[in-house]
Inverse folding.
Protein backbone atom coordinates (compact mmCIF):
# COMPACT_ATOMS: atom_id res chain seq x y z
CA UNK A 1 0.00 0.00 0.00
CA UNK A 2 1.28 3.46 -0.88
CA UNK A 3 1.98 5.61 2.18
CA UNK A 4 2.33 9.35 2.63
CA UNK A 5 6.01 10.24 2.94
CA UNK A 6 6.87 11.43 6.43
CA UNK A 7 8.23 14.77 5.14
CA UNK A 8 4.80 15.54 3.66
CA UNK A 9 3.23 15.00 7.09
CA UNK A 10 5.78 17.36 8.66
CA UNK A 11 5.11 19.96 5.95
CA UNK A 12 1.40 19.87 6.78
CA UNK A 13 2.15 20.33 10.49
CA UNK A 14 4.55 23.15 9.68
CA UNK A 15 1.90 24.89 7.60
CA UNK A 16 -0.71 24.33 10.31
CA UNK A 17 1.42 25.92 13.06
CA UNK A 18 2.75 28.66 10.83
CA UNK A 19 -0.75 29.79 9.86
CA UNK A 20 -1.93 29.65 13.48
CA UNK A 21 1.04 31.66 14.78
CA UNK A 22 0.80 34.19 11.98
CA UNK A 23 -2.84 34.88 12.80
CA UNK A 24 -2.00 34.99 16.49
CA UNK A 25 0.64 37.68 15.84
CA UNK A 26 -1.86 39.79 13.89
CA UNK A 27 -4.48 39.30 16.58
CA UNK A 28 -2.14 40.45 19.34
CA UNK A 29 -1.02 43.42 17.25
CA UNK A 30 -4.62 44.43 16.43
CA UNK A 31 -5.50 44.30 20.14
CA UNK A 32 -2.71 46.71 20.98
CA UNK A 33 -3.63 49.19 18.25
CA UNK A 34 -6.65 51.30 19.03
CA UNK A 35 -7.32 53.51 16.07
CA UNK A 36 -10.07 56.03 16.73
CA UNK A 37 -12.03 56.69 13.59
CA UNK A 38 -14.35 59.58 12.96
CA UNK A 39 -18.02 58.66 12.66
CA UNK A 40 -20.23 60.34 10.07
CA UNK A 41 -23.90 59.60 9.40
CA UNK A 42 -23.93 58.90 5.69
CA UNK A 43 -27.14 58.50 3.76
CA UNK A 44 -27.80 54.82 3.23
CA UNK A 45 -30.19 52.68 1.21
CA UNK A 46 -30.94 49.10 2.20
CA UNK A 47 -31.52 46.75 -0.72
CA UNK A 48 -33.54 43.74 0.43
CA UNK A 49 -33.88 41.06 -2.26
CA UNK A 50 -36.79 38.78 -1.39
CA UNK A 51 -37.98 35.59 -2.98
CA UNK A 52 -40.68 33.65 -1.13
CA UNK A 53 -39.78 35.20 2.20
CA UNK A 54 -43.25 35.74 3.65
CA UNK A 55 -42.14 34.31 6.99
CA UNK A 56 -39.21 36.67 7.51
CA UNK A 57 -39.71 39.85 5.46
CA UNK A 58 -41.62 41.74 8.16
CA UNK A 59 -39.10 40.99 10.85
CA UNK A 60 -36.23 41.85 8.49
CA UNK A 61 -37.62 45.32 7.63
CA UNK A 62 -38.53 46.02 11.24
CA UNK A 63 -34.99 45.23 12.30
CA UNK A 64 -33.77 47.94 9.88
CA UNK A 65 -36.38 50.40 11.14
CA UNK A 66 -35.20 49.79 14.70
CA UNK A 67 -31.56 50.60 13.96
CA UNK A 68 -30.09 53.49 16.01
CA UNK A 69 -29.48 55.95 13.16
CA UNK A 70 -31.10 59.18 11.89
CA UNK A 71 -34.32 57.99 10.28
CA UNK A 72 -34.13 60.57 7.50
CA UNK A 73 -30.90 59.03 6.33
CA UNK A 74 -32.23 55.50 5.81
CA UNK A 75 -34.15 54.27 2.77
CA UNK A 76 -35.23 50.71 2.13
CA UNK A 77 -35.83 49.12 -1.27
CA UNK A 78 -37.48 45.71 -1.14
CA UNK A 79 -37.01 43.92 -4.43
CA UNK A 80 -39.60 41.19 -4.72
CA UNK A 81 -38.05 38.67 -7.06
CA UNK A 82 -41.32 37.28 -8.41
CA UNK A 83 -42.29 35.55 -5.16
CA UNK A 84 -45.08 32.99 -5.34
CA UNK A 85 -46.12 33.39 -1.71
CA UNK A 86 -47.34 36.46 0.20
CA UNK A 87 -43.97 38.26 0.20
CA UNK A 88 -45.09 40.97 -2.22
CA UNK A 89 -48.36 41.65 -0.38
CA UNK A 90 -46.58 41.87 2.98
CA UNK A 91 -43.92 44.13 1.44
CA UNK A 92 -46.63 46.48 0.14
CA UNK A 93 -48.12 46.61 3.64
CA UNK A 94 -44.69 47.59 4.98
CA UNK A 95 -44.41 50.24 2.26
CA UNK A 96 -47.68 51.76 3.48
CA UNK A 97 -46.57 51.59 7.08
CA UNK A 98 -43.07 53.06 6.71
CA UNK A 99 -42.48 56.16 4.61
CA UNK A 100 -38.88 55.18 3.78
CA UNK A 101 -39.80 51.79 2.28
CA UNK A 102 -40.18 51.30 -1.48
CA UNK A 103 -41.23 48.00 -3.03
CA UNK A 104 -40.09 47.01 -6.51
CA UNK A 105 -41.11 43.88 -8.31
CA UNK A 106 -39.43 41.96 -11.08
CA UNK A 107 -39.67 38.58 -12.73
CA UNK A 108 -37.66 35.83 -11.09
CA UNK A 109 -34.47 34.97 -12.97
CA UNK A 110 -33.22 32.45 -10.47
CA UNK A 111 -30.16 34.14 -8.99
CA UNK A 112 -29.84 36.57 -6.12
CA UNK A 113 -27.57 38.93 -8.03
CA UNK A 114 -30.42 39.92 -10.41
CA UNK A 115 -32.71 41.51 -7.77
CA UNK A 116 -29.70 42.98 -5.94
CA UNK A 117 -28.44 44.71 -9.10
CA UNK A 118 -31.99 45.78 -9.91
CA UNK A 119 -32.27 47.42 -6.48
CA UNK A 120 -28.80 48.98 -6.71
CA UNK A 121 -29.77 50.72 -9.94
CA UNK A 122 -32.69 52.38 -8.11
CA UNK A 123 -30.60 53.60 -5.17
CA UNK A 124 -29.12 57.09 -5.08
CA UNK A 125 -27.48 57.37 -1.64
CA UNK A 126 -23.76 57.36 -0.95
CA UNK A 127 -23.91 54.01 0.80
CA UNK A 128 -25.93 50.92 -0.03
CA UNK A 129 -26.50 48.03 2.34
CA UNK A 130 -27.44 44.63 0.97
CA UNK A 131 -29.41 42.53 3.38
CA UNK A 132 -30.98 39.16 2.59
CA UNK A 133 -34.67 39.06 3.42
CA UNK A 134 -34.12 36.22 5.86
CA UNK A 135 -31.57 38.20 7.87
CA UNK A 136 -32.20 40.53 10.80
CA UNK A 137 -29.77 43.18 11.97
CA UNK A 138 -28.93 44.51 15.41
CA UNK A 139 -29.73 48.05 16.54
CA UNK A 140 -26.09 49.11 16.68
CA UNK A 141 -25.19 47.81 13.20
CA UNK A 142 -24.81 51.18 11.49
CA UNK A 143 -23.13 52.85 14.48
CA UNK A 144 -20.47 50.15 14.31
CA UNK A 145 -20.07 50.32 10.54
CA UNK A 146 -19.89 54.06 9.89
CA UNK A 147 -16.42 54.73 11.40
CA UNK A 148 -14.90 52.39 8.79
CA UNK A 149 -16.18 54.67 6.02
CA UNK A 150 -14.15 57.57 7.40
CA UNK A 151 -11.26 55.87 5.61
CA UNK A 152 -11.78 56.72 1.99
CA UNK A 153 -10.18 53.56 0.69
CA UNK A 154 -12.82 51.45 2.47
CA UNK A 155 -15.34 50.36 -0.15
CA UNK A 156 -17.34 47.96 1.96
CA UNK A 157 -18.07 46.92 5.51
CA UNK A 158 -18.98 43.31 6.15
CA UNK A 159 -20.88 42.10 9.21
CA UNK A 160 -20.70 38.98 11.24
CA UNK A 161 -23.40 36.47 10.29
CA UNK A 162 -24.85 34.63 13.25
CA UNK A 163 -27.06 31.57 12.73
CA UNK A 164 -30.37 31.60 14.56
CA UNK A 165 -30.99 27.88 14.44
CA UNK A 166 -28.68 25.62 16.45
CA UNK A 167 -30.56 22.51 17.44
CA UNK A 168 -29.69 19.77 14.97
CA UNK A 169 -26.14 18.52 14.42
CA UNK A 170 -25.82 20.23 11.06
CA UNK A 171 -26.98 23.54 12.55
CA UNK A 172 -24.71 23.34 15.59
CA UNK A 173 -21.56 22.69 13.58
CA UNK A 174 -22.43 25.52 11.23
CA UNK A 175 -22.82 27.78 14.25
CA UNK A 176 -19.24 26.97 15.25
CA UNK A 177 -18.08 27.35 11.66
CA UNK A 178 -19.64 30.83 11.44
CA UNK A 179 -18.09 31.80 14.80
CA UNK A 180 -14.64 30.66 13.68
CA UNK A 181 -15.10 32.44 10.35
CA UNK A 182 -15.96 35.63 12.25
CA UNK A 183 -12.78 35.37 14.30
CA UNK A 184 -10.72 34.63 11.19
CA UNK A 185 -12.26 37.51 9.23
CA UNK A 186 -11.71 39.92 12.06
CA UNK A 187 -8.03 39.00 12.12
CA UNK A 188 -7.44 39.26 8.38
CA UNK A 189 -9.55 42.43 8.30
CA UNK A 190 -6.95 43.97 10.60
CA UNK A 191 -4.31 43.64 7.83
CA UNK A 192 -6.61 44.88 5.04
CA UNK A 193 -6.91 41.39 3.62
CA UNK A 194 -10.59 40.51 3.94
CA UNK A 195 -11.59 39.15 0.54
CA UNK A 196 -15.30 38.46 0.99
CA UNK A 197 -18.62 40.15 1.59
CA UNK A 198 -21.72 38.27 2.79
CA UNK A 199 -25.47 38.31 3.49
CA UNK A 200 -25.21 41.71 5.16
CA UNK A 201 -22.66 44.16 3.81
CA UNK A 202 -22.56 47.89 3.23
CA UNK A 203 -20.91 49.29 0.09
CA UNK A 204 -20.03 52.66 -1.36
CA UNK A 205 -22.38 53.00 -4.32
CA UNK A 206 -19.64 54.69 -6.25
CA UNK A 207 -17.76 51.43 -6.47
CA UNK A 208 -20.60 49.77 -8.37
CA UNK A 209 -20.83 52.72 -10.73
CA UNK A 210 -17.14 52.54 -11.53
CA UNK A 211 -16.45 48.80 -11.36
CA UNK A 212 -19.78 47.24 -12.16
CA UNK A 213 -22.54 45.43 -10.28
CA UNK A 214 -22.67 41.88 -8.94
CA UNK A 215 -21.87 39.14 -11.46
CA UNK A 216 -25.13 37.33 -12.15
CA UNK A 217 -23.56 34.08 -13.30
CA UNK A 218 -21.13 33.81 -10.41
CA UNK A 219 -22.02 31.14 -7.86
CA UNK A 220 -20.48 33.14 -5.01
CA UNK A 221 -21.04 36.69 -6.14
CA UNK A 222 -20.34 37.97 -2.60
CA UNK A 223 -16.87 36.46 -2.67
CA UNK A 224 -16.28 37.80 -6.18
CA UNK A 225 -17.27 41.30 -5.07
CA UNK A 226 -14.87 41.11 -2.11
CA UNK A 227 -12.04 40.04 -4.39
CA UNK A 228 -12.98 42.72 -6.93
CA UNK A 229 -12.71 45.38 -4.25
CA UNK A 230 -9.34 44.06 -3.14
CA UNK A 231 -8.18 43.64 -6.72
CA UNK A 232 -8.82 47.35 -7.29
CA UNK A 233 -6.70 48.14 -4.24
CA UNK A 234 -9.53 49.13 -1.93
CA UNK A 235 -10.35 47.78 1.47
CA UNK A 236 -13.18 46.00 3.29
CA UNK A 237 -13.88 46.57 6.97
CA UNK A 238 -15.25 43.90 9.27
CA UNK A 239 -17.71 44.30 12.13
CA UNK A 240 -17.76 41.41 14.56
CA UNK A 241 -19.36 43.23 17.49
CA UNK A 242 -22.67 43.67 15.71
CA UNK A 243 -24.19 41.03 13.52
CA UNK A 244 -26.93 39.93 11.23
CA UNK A 245 -28.99 36.90 12.18
CA UNK A 246 -29.58 34.30 9.53
CA UNK A 247 -30.98 30.81 9.13
CA UNK A 248 -28.43 28.22 8.06
CA UNK A 249 -29.48 25.07 6.13
CA UNK A 250 -31.05 22.64 8.55
CA UNK A 251 -31.09 19.61 6.28
CA UNK A 252 -28.14 17.74 4.83
CA UNK A 253 -29.64 18.11 1.36
CA UNK A 254 -29.92 21.90 1.71
CA UNK A 255 -26.44 22.09 3.14
CA UNK A 256 -24.93 20.04 0.30
CA UNK A 257 -26.60 22.23 -2.31
CA UNK A 258 -25.33 25.41 -0.64
CA UNK A 259 -21.81 24.14 -0.01
CA UNK A 260 -21.33 22.74 -3.49
CA UNK A 261 -22.23 26.14 -4.81
CA UNK A 262 -19.87 27.87 -2.38
CA UNK A 263 -16.99 25.48 -2.96
CA UNK A 264 -17.31 25.69 -6.72
CA UNK A 265 -17.68 29.47 -6.55
CA UNK A 266 -14.56 29.71 -4.40
CA UNK A 267 -12.49 27.77 -6.94
CA UNK A 268 -13.97 29.76 -9.81
CA UNK A 269 -13.10 33.06 -8.15
CA UNK A 270 -9.63 31.90 -7.17
CA UNK A 271 -9.04 31.26 -10.85
CA UNK A 272 -10.58 34.55 -11.89
CA UNK A 273 -8.39 36.54 -9.49
CA UNK A 274 -5.26 34.44 -9.87
CA UNK A 275 -3.29 37.63 -10.54
CA UNK A 276 -3.59 38.47 -6.82
CA UNK A 277 -1.85 35.23 -5.80
CA UNK A 278 1.78 35.58 -4.72
CA UNK A 279 1.70 39.21 -5.82
CA UNK A 280 3.48 41.64 -3.51
CA UNK A 281 1.32 44.44 -4.88
CA UNK A 282 -1.57 43.01 -2.85
CA UNK A 283 0.38 42.79 0.39
CA UNK A 284 -0.46 39.99 2.83
CA UNK A 285 -3.61 39.13 0.89
CA UNK A 286 -1.57 38.17 -2.18
CA UNK A 287 1.47 36.82 -0.41
CA UNK A 288 -0.22 34.75 2.27
CA UNK A 289 -3.99 34.90 2.85
CA UNK A 290 -5.22 33.72 -0.56
CA UNK A 291 -2.39 31.23 -1.25
CA UNK A 292 -2.69 29.67 2.21
CA UNK A 293 -6.48 29.41 1.77
CA UNK A 294 -6.03 27.69 -1.56
CA UNK A 295 -3.29 25.36 -0.31
CA UNK A 296 -5.36 24.46 2.78
CA UNK A 297 -8.24 23.58 0.49
CA UNK A 298 -6.01 21.31 -1.59
CA UNK A 299 -4.41 19.75 1.50
CA UNK A 300 -7.76 19.02 3.18
CA UNK A 301 -9.10 17.51 -0.06
CA UNK A 302 -5.96 15.39 -0.48
CA UNK A 303 -6.08 14.19 3.12
CA UNK A 304 -9.69 13.22 2.61
CA UNK A 305 -8.94 11.26 -0.58
CA UNK A 306 -5.99 9.59 1.11
CA UNK A 307 -8.07 8.69 4.16
CA UNK A 308 -10.67 7.07 1.91
CA UNK A 309 -7.93 5.19 0.02
CA UNK A 310 -6.35 3.99 3.28
CA UNK A 311 -9.70 2.94 4.71
CA UNK A 312 -10.56 0.93 1.60
CA UNK A 313 -7.10 -0.68 1.65
CA UNK A 314 -7.39 -1.46 5.34
CA UNK A 315 -10.82 -2.99 4.74
CA UNK A 316 -9.52 -5.14 1.88
CA UNK A 317 -6.59 -6.26 3.98
CA UNK A 318 -8.95 -7.35 6.78
CA UNK A 319 -11.16 -9.16 4.26
CA UNK A 320 -8.04 -10.90 2.92
CA UNK A 321 -7.02 -11.87 6.42
CA UNK A 322 -10.46 -13.12 7.40
CA UNK A 323 -10.69 -15.12 4.17
CA UNK A 324 -7.29 -16.59 5.04
CA UNK A 325 -8.61 -17.76 8.38
CA UNK A 326 -7.56 -14.89 10.62
CA UNK A 327 -9.77 -14.30 13.64
CA UNK A 328 -10.00 -10.64 14.76
CA UNK A 329 -8.69 -10.07 18.25
CA UNK A 330 -9.01 -6.94 20.35
CA UNK A 331 -5.66 -7.20 22.03
CA UNK A 332 -4.00 -3.81 22.49
CA UNK A 333 -0.26 -3.79 22.68
CA UNK A 334 0.64 -1.11 25.24
CA UNK A 335 4.29 -1.03 24.15
CA UNK A 336 3.29 -0.50 20.56
CA UNK A 337 0.88 2.29 21.60
CA UNK A 338 3.53 4.01 23.72
CA UNK A 339 6.13 4.02 20.97
CA UNK A 340 3.53 5.26 18.50
CA UNK A 341 2.54 8.07 20.88
CA UNK A 342 6.08 9.38 21.30
CA UNK A 343 6.77 9.59 17.57
CA UNK A 344 7.37 13.19 16.47
CA UNK A 345 4.27 13.25 14.27
CA UNK A 346 2.08 12.22 17.22
CA UNK A 347 3.63 14.84 19.49
CA UNK A 348 3.06 17.46 16.79
CA UNK A 349 -0.52 16.25 16.47
CA UNK A 350 -0.92 16.76 20.22
CA UNK A 351 0.55 20.27 19.86
CA UNK A 352 -1.86 21.06 17.04
CA UNK A 353 -4.74 20.10 19.36
CA UNK A 354 -3.36 22.55 21.95
CA UNK A 355 -3.00 25.30 19.35
CA UNK A 356 -6.56 24.59 18.18
CA UNK A 357 -7.85 24.89 21.74
CA UNK A 358 -5.97 28.13 22.21
CA UNK A 359 -7.54 29.64 19.08
CA UNK A 360 -10.95 28.37 20.18
CA UNK A 361 -10.53 30.10 23.55
CA UNK A 362 -9.45 33.34 21.89
CA UNK A 363 -12.41 33.11 19.53
CA UNK A 364 -14.81 32.84 22.48
CA UNK A 365 -13.09 35.73 24.20
CA UNK A 366 -13.29 37.89 21.08
CA UNK A 367 -16.95 37.11 20.38
CA UNK A 368 -17.79 37.36 24.09
CA UNK A 369 -19.74 34.17 23.74
CA UNK A 370 -19.52 30.69 25.20
CA UNK A 371 -19.24 28.06 22.48
CA UNK A 372 -19.74 24.35 22.95
CA UNK A 373 -16.46 22.44 23.04
CA UNK A 374 -18.26 19.29 21.89
CA UNK A 375 -19.61 21.11 18.85
CA UNK A 376 -16.11 22.45 18.21
CA UNK A 377 -14.65 18.92 18.29
CA UNK A 378 -17.44 17.71 16.00
CA UNK A 379 -16.68 20.60 13.65
CA UNK A 380 -12.97 19.83 13.50
CA UNK A 381 -13.46 16.12 13.07
CA UNK A 382 -16.69 15.11 11.37
CA UNK A 383 -17.73 18.40 9.78
CA UNK A 384 -14.28 19.05 8.29
CA UNK A 385 -14.59 15.78 6.40
CA UNK A 386 -18.01 16.82 5.13
CA UNK A 387 -16.53 20.09 3.87
CA UNK A 388 -13.62 18.19 2.32
CA UNK A 389 -16.09 16.01 0.39
CA UNK A 390 -17.75 19.15 -0.98
CA UNK A 391 -14.38 20.52 -2.09
CA UNK A 392 -13.38 17.23 -3.69
CA UNK A 393 -16.67 17.09 -5.63
CA UNK A 394 -16.37 20.74 -6.63
CA UNK A 395 -12.79 20.20 -7.70
CA UNK A 396 -14.06 17.34 -9.86
CA UNK A 397 -16.72 19.61 -11.40
CA UNK A 398 -14.14 22.29 -11.92
CA UNK A 399 -11.63 20.02 -13.61
CA UNK A 400 -14.17 18.61 -16.04
CA UNK A 401 -15.48 22.11 -16.74
CA UNK A 402 -19.01 21.54 -15.43
CA UNK A 403 -20.99 23.45 -12.83
CA UNK A 404 -22.95 21.95 -9.96
CA UNK A 405 -26.69 22.60 -10.04
CA UNK A 406 -27.40 26.19 -9.01
CA UNK B 1 -14.98 61.39 -5.58
CA UNK B 2 -13.35 59.46 -2.75
CA UNK B 3 -12.79 56.45 -4.92
CA UNK B 4 -9.34 57.50 -6.08
CA UNK B 5 -7.83 56.79 -2.67
CA UNK B 6 -6.27 53.36 -2.59
CA UNK B 7 -5.35 51.21 0.37
CA UNK B 8 -1.72 51.23 1.47
CA UNK B 9 -0.67 47.60 1.40
CA UNK B 10 2.23 45.95 3.09
CA UNK B 11 3.70 42.53 3.66
CA UNK B 12 4.00 41.72 7.37
CA UNK B 13 7.53 40.31 7.15
CA UNK B 14 8.00 40.66 10.90
CA UNK B 15 4.99 38.42 11.58
CA UNK B 16 6.15 35.82 9.06
CA UNK B 17 9.49 35.69 10.81
CA UNK B 18 7.92 35.37 14.26
CA UNK B 19 5.56 32.65 13.01
CA UNK B 20 8.49 30.75 11.47
CA UNK B 21 10.52 30.97 14.68
CA UNK B 22 7.59 29.83 16.83
CA UNK B 23 6.85 26.95 14.47
CA UNK B 24 10.48 25.82 14.44
CA UNK B 25 10.50 26.08 18.23
CA UNK B 26 7.45 23.82 18.42
CA UNK B 27 9.10 21.25 16.15
CA UNK B 28 12.26 21.38 18.25
CA UNK B 29 10.22 20.99 21.46
CA UNK B 30 8.43 18.01 19.88
CA UNK B 31 11.73 16.31 19.05
CA UNK B 32 13.06 16.95 22.58
CA UNK B 33 9.93 15.66 24.31
CA UNK B 34 9.92 12.54 22.10
CA UNK B 35 13.60 11.91 22.90
CA UNK B 36 13.13 12.36 26.63
CA UNK B 37 10.19 9.97 26.70
CA UNK B 38 12.03 7.44 24.55
CA UNK B 39 15.07 7.52 26.84
CA UNK B 40 12.95 6.29 29.73
CA UNK B 41 12.26 3.18 27.73
CA UNK B 42 15.83 2.58 26.64
CA UNK B 43 16.62 0.98 29.99
CA UNK B 44 13.74 -1.48 29.42
CA UNK B 45 15.04 -2.28 25.97
CA UNK B 46 18.57 -2.89 27.21
CA UNK B 47 17.19 -5.19 29.88
CA UNK B 48 15.18 -7.11 27.26
CA UNK B 49 18.30 -7.54 25.16
CA UNK B 50 20.25 -8.83 28.15
CA UNK B 51 17.45 -11.26 29.04
CA UNK B 52 17.44 -12.61 25.52
CA UNK B 53 21.23 -13.03 25.41
CA UNK B 54 21.33 -14.86 28.75
CA UNK B 55 18.40 -17.01 27.72
CA UNK B 56 20.06 -17.97 24.44
CA UNK B 57 23.16 -19.11 26.23
CA UNK B 58 21.21 -21.17 28.75
CA UNK B 59 18.87 -22.53 26.12
CA UNK B 60 21.77 -23.71 23.94
CA UNK B 61 23.35 -25.54 26.88
CA UNK B 62 20.01 -27.05 27.82
CA UNK B 63 19.45 -28.23 24.25
CA UNK B 64 22.83 -29.94 24.22
CA UNK B 65 21.93 -31.75 27.44
CA UNK B 66 18.49 -32.73 26.16
CA UNK B 67 19.77 -33.95 22.81
CA UNK B 68 22.31 -36.17 24.57
CA UNK B 69 19.71 -37.69 26.87
CA UNK B 70 18.74 -41.26 26.27
CA UNK B 71 15.22 -40.87 27.59
CA UNK B 72 13.94 -38.01 25.44
CA UNK B 73 10.29 -38.85 26.17
CA UNK B 74 10.75 -38.18 29.88
CA UNK B 75 11.73 -34.52 29.55
CA UNK B 76 9.15 -31.85 30.37
CA UNK B 77 8.96 -30.59 26.84
CA UNK B 78 6.16 -28.13 27.47
CA UNK B 79 8.38 -26.03 29.73
CA UNK B 80 11.08 -25.80 27.03
CA UNK B 81 8.52 -24.80 24.45
CA UNK B 82 7.00 -22.11 26.70
CA UNK B 83 10.46 -20.65 27.28
CA UNK B 84 10.96 -20.40 23.52
CA UNK B 85 7.58 -18.70 23.16
CA UNK B 86 8.50 -16.31 25.99
CA UNK B 87 11.73 -15.24 24.24
CA UNK B 88 9.82 -14.94 20.99
CA UNK B 89 7.48 -12.48 22.73
CA UNK B 90 10.36 -10.38 24.07
CA UNK B 91 11.84 -10.29 20.58
CA UNK B 92 8.49 -9.21 19.15
CA UNK B 93 8.37 -6.36 21.68
CA UNK B 94 11.89 -5.33 20.71
CA UNK B 95 10.74 -5.28 17.09
CA UNK B 96 7.98 -2.87 18.03
CA UNK B 97 10.26 -0.66 20.06
CA UNK B 98 13.26 -0.53 17.75
CA UNK B 99 11.80 -1.47 14.39
CA UNK B 100 11.81 -4.74 12.52
CA UNK B 101 14.99 -3.98 10.63
CA UNK B 102 16.97 -2.48 13.52
CA UNK B 103 20.53 -3.96 13.57
CA UNK B 104 20.24 -4.89 17.30
CA UNK B 105 16.97 -6.69 16.65
CA UNK B 106 18.44 -8.45 13.61
CA UNK B 107 21.39 -9.61 15.70
CA UNK B 108 19.07 -11.13 18.30
CA UNK B 109 16.93 -12.62 15.59
CA UNK B 110 19.95 -14.28 14.05
CA UNK B 111 20.62 -16.10 17.33
CA UNK B 112 16.91 -16.79 17.79
CA UNK B 113 16.75 -18.39 14.34
CA UNK B 114 19.74 -20.54 15.17
CA UNK B 115 18.04 -21.76 18.34
CA UNK B 116 14.78 -22.33 16.50
CA UNK B 117 16.57 -24.54 14.00
CA UNK B 118 17.89 -26.54 16.96
CA UNK B 119 14.41 -26.72 18.46
CA UNK B 120 13.10 -27.96 15.11
CA UNK B 121 15.64 -30.77 15.10
CA UNK B 122 14.70 -31.68 18.66
CA UNK B 123 10.97 -31.50 17.95
CA UNK B 124 11.32 -33.88 15.05
CA UNK B 125 13.29 -36.36 17.11
CA UNK B 126 10.89 -36.29 20.05
CA UNK B 127 7.86 -36.43 17.79
CA UNK B 128 9.19 -39.51 16.04
CA UNK B 129 10.50 -41.28 19.09
CA UNK B 130 7.65 -40.61 21.47
CA UNK B 131 4.74 -40.73 18.94
CA UNK B 132 3.38 -37.34 20.01
CA UNK B 133 1.73 -36.74 16.68
CA UNK B 134 2.62 -33.08 16.71
CA UNK B 135 2.14 -31.05 13.55
CA UNK B 136 5.33 -29.11 13.00
CA UNK B 137 5.22 -26.07 10.77
CA UNK B 138 8.17 -24.00 9.67
CA UNK B 139 7.25 -20.55 8.41
CA UNK B 140 9.78 -18.60 6.36
CA UNK B 141 8.85 -14.95 5.86
CA UNK B 142 10.29 -11.64 4.81
CA UNK B 143 10.09 -8.28 6.60
CA UNK B 144 11.52 -6.46 3.63
CA UNK B 145 8.89 -3.98 2.47
CA UNK B 146 10.70 -3.61 -0.86
CA UNK B 147 9.62 -7.15 -1.69
CA UNK B 148 6.07 -5.83 -2.20
CA UNK B 149 3.61 -8.68 -2.58
CA UNK B 150 5.90 -11.18 -0.83
CA UNK B 151 6.07 -8.91 2.21
CA UNK B 152 2.30 -8.39 2.23
CA UNK B 153 1.59 -12.12 1.89
CA UNK B 154 4.16 -12.92 4.57
CA UNK B 155 2.34 -10.62 6.96
CA UNK B 156 -0.99 -12.20 6.02
CA UNK B 157 0.44 -15.69 6.47
CA UNK B 158 1.66 -14.67 9.93
CA UNK B 159 -1.87 -13.70 10.99
CA UNK B 160 -3.23 -16.99 9.61
CA UNK B 161 -0.67 -19.06 11.49
CA UNK B 162 -1.30 -17.08 14.69
CA UNK B 163 -4.96 -17.98 14.61
CA UNK B 164 -4.16 -21.61 13.71
CA UNK B 165 -1.72 -21.92 16.61
CA UNK B 166 -4.18 -20.35 19.05
CA UNK B 167 -6.83 -22.88 18.01
CA UNK B 168 -4.69 -25.88 18.98
CA UNK B 169 -1.60 -25.02 21.02
CA UNK B 170 -1.06 -28.59 22.20
CA UNK B 171 -0.44 -30.30 18.91
CA UNK B 172 0.57 -27.52 16.52
CA UNK B 173 4.14 -26.31 16.81
CA UNK B 174 5.09 -23.36 14.62
CA UNK B 175 8.59 -22.01 14.16
CA UNK B 176 8.86 -18.72 12.25
CA UNK B 177 12.06 -17.65 10.48
CA UNK B 178 12.82 -14.14 9.26
CA UNK B 179 14.71 -14.86 6.03
CA UNK B 180 16.69 -11.62 6.36
CA UNK B 181 18.27 -12.92 9.58
CA UNK B 182 19.52 -16.17 8.10
CA UNK B 183 21.76 -17.98 10.53
CA UNK B 184 23.85 -20.95 9.22
CA UNK B 185 21.25 -23.48 10.37
CA UNK B 186 18.43 -21.44 8.83
CA UNK B 187 20.37 -21.17 5.58
CA UNK B 188 20.75 -24.89 5.41
CA UNK B 189 16.98 -25.26 5.88
CA UNK B 190 16.38 -22.70 3.10
CA UNK B 191 18.72 -24.64 0.84
CA UNK B 192 17.18 -27.97 1.80
CA UNK B 193 13.72 -26.82 0.71
CA UNK B 194 15.01 -24.68 -2.21
CA UNK B 195 13.17 -21.64 -0.90
CA UNK B 196 13.36 -18.73 -3.32
CA UNK B 197 10.22 -16.76 -2.47
CA UNK B 198 8.13 -15.95 0.60
CA UNK B 199 6.02 -16.86 2.43
CA UNK B 200 7.09 -20.48 2.46
CA UNK B 201 5.75 -23.21 4.72
CA UNK B 202 7.25 -26.53 5.67
CA UNK B 203 4.46 -28.65 7.06
CA UNK B 204 5.50 -31.96 8.55
CA UNK B 205 8.68 -31.89 6.49
CA UNK B 206 6.97 -31.13 3.17
CA UNK B 207 7.53 -27.75 1.50
CA UNK B 208 4.70 -25.48 0.28
CA UNK B 209 5.55 -22.25 -1.55
CA UNK B 210 3.28 -19.18 -1.53
CA UNK B 211 0.47 -18.13 0.75
CA UNK B 212 -1.73 -20.87 2.23
CA UNK B 213 -5.07 -20.18 3.84
CA UNK B 214 -6.01 -21.68 7.18
CA UNK B 215 -8.38 -24.04 5.38
CA UNK B 216 -5.59 -25.21 3.06
CA UNK B 217 -3.22 -25.76 5.97
CA UNK B 218 -5.85 -27.75 7.83
CA UNK B 219 -6.36 -29.90 4.72
CA UNK B 220 -2.59 -30.54 4.54
CA UNK B 221 -2.45 -31.37 8.25
CA UNK B 222 -5.28 -33.83 7.83
CA UNK B 223 -3.31 -35.46 5.03
CA UNK B 224 -5.83 -34.60 2.32
Amino acid sequence: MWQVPIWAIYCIFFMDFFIAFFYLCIYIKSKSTNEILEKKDHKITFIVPAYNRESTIKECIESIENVRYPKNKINIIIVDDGSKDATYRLSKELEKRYSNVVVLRKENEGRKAYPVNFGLKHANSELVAILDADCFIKEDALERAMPFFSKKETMAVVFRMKPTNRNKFIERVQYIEYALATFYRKIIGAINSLPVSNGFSIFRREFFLKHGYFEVDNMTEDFEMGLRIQSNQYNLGYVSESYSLTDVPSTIGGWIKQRLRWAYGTLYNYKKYKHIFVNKKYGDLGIFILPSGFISLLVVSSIFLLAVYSLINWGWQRVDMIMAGWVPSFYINIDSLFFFAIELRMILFFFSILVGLMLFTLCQFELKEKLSIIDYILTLTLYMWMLAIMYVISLGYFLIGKRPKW
Amino acid sequence: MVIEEKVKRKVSIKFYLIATILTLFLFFAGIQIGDQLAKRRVADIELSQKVISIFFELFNKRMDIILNQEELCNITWDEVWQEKVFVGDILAKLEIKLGKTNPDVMKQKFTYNEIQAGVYELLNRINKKCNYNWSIILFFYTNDKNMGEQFKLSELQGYTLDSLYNSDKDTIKILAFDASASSPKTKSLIEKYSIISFPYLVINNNGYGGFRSRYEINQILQGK
Q: What stands out?
A: Chain A has a mean pLDDT of 91.
